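User: Just a sanity check before I run the rest of the batch. Below are the structure tokens for the first item. I only need the designed sequence back.
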């Protein structure tokens, strides 16, 4: 009977993901803009999530997404969003990594678009549950903007990482 193969993260990969979480949180703490209409904020979290997802695949994207989203909400005082951010940004990272980690540009663009949609819909649902449907609707353009900026930043960063570091990144 054949055994199921599992992918394990190396110590180097776990360390790199931890650093990506820390960098994502620090950059997002420095560059965040409160959005009064939604009780939330715009930040650069999605760039870090997409960099992790396109570099390390779905598991790396989910880990960086969930952890950085939760930590940001905790540190910025948006504790009502912590669990939602864990789920929404974790799923966003998973989707981007599942469909975009194979390095084909067209596929990466579609994966990032799908991940952006996951984030926007996820926060629409979150805002609607926490506040009102109107609050969820107000958040759509700001969340879409945040996700798009993250995707635009991540694309060239990942290309440079893969060019300079190459396949030994996961070794």
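Assistant: Here's the designed sequence for the first item:
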């Amino acid at each position: 009977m054949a055994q199921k193969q599992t992918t394990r993260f190396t110590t180097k990969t776990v360390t790199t993901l931890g650093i990506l979480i820390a960098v994502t949180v620090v950059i997002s703490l420095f560059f965040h803009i409160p959005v009064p209409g939604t009780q939330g904020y715009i930040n650069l979290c999605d760039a870090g999530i997409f960099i992790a997802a396109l570099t390390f695949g779905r598991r790396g994207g989910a880990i960086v997404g969930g952890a950085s989203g939760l930590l940001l909400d905790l540190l910025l005082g948006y504790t009502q969003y912590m669990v939602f951010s864990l789920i929404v940004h974790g799923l966003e990272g998973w989707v981007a990594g599942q469909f975009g980690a194979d390095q084909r540009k067209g596929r990466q663009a579609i994966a990032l678009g799908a991940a952006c949609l996951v984030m926007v819909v996820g926060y629409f649902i979150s805002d609607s549950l926490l506040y009102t449907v109107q609050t969820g609707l107000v958040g759509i353009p700001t969340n879409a903007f945040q996700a798009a900026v993250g995707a635009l930043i991540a694309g060239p960063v990942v290309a440079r990482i893969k060019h300079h570091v190459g396949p030994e990144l996961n070794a």
